[in-house]
Amino acid sequence: MAVTDAAIDKIKQMILSGELAPGDRLPKEADLAVRLGLSRNSLREAVRALALINVLDVRQGDGTYVTSLEPHLLLDTMSFVLDLHRDDTVIQFFEVRRILEPAATALAAEQMSEAEIEELRVILKALPDEPTVEELVANDLKFHHRIAQGSGNSVLCSFIESLSGPTTRARIWRGLTQEGAMAKTREQHTAIYDAIAARQPDVARSWATVHVAGVESWLRKALELD
């Protein structure tokens, strides 16, 4: 299990066991890190991840609290993390993405008009220099949607769109827990765009395969090590 995942799991267990209840304040960072056997950096990353999914509330100058939710709502909020580790059917969705998206990307390199390629460039450039995970995933979904539309095949586009929902949670969790995931996504999107703009379908197909397979590979390792 990755270090940040392990840190998240330890805090999660404190909540699920009732040791930390909704509304409770977490112990001081230094004390909690020693108690859980974590580095302070790993603890900070875990707190950041859990804050982004509204399990923890970080109050500047005050401390970090478990969100004041009813217990069943708290568990529902956390369920998307648990889903990734309990249900490996999401891997099958990524396997299908790995088959369909490279094909759509290659078609886009041949079929997209110059105006559509410009739209893709605008989407790519719209991502902030230091995006939040939510901004990154939203931009990722928009980027791939535009490419699927650009394939010129409405049936293929519909199939790809149907895969977005089941794989979004995994993409968010990867952005939260995998070091360098944001930079890698930006780099690969740029390579895909460059290949489409240069009308190089084989290169576009290859980069799209690398891009989707990277998330799939991360997810397989996360499930195996859980």
Automatic annotation (TrEMBL):
It comes from the Bacteria. Keywords: DNA-binding, Transcription, Transcription regulation. Residues 1-69 form the HTH gntR-type domain. One of its GO terms (molecular function) is DNA binding. CDD domains: WHTH_GntR (cd07377). Coiled coil: none annotated. This is FadR family transcriptional regulator. It comes from Nonomuraea cypriaca.
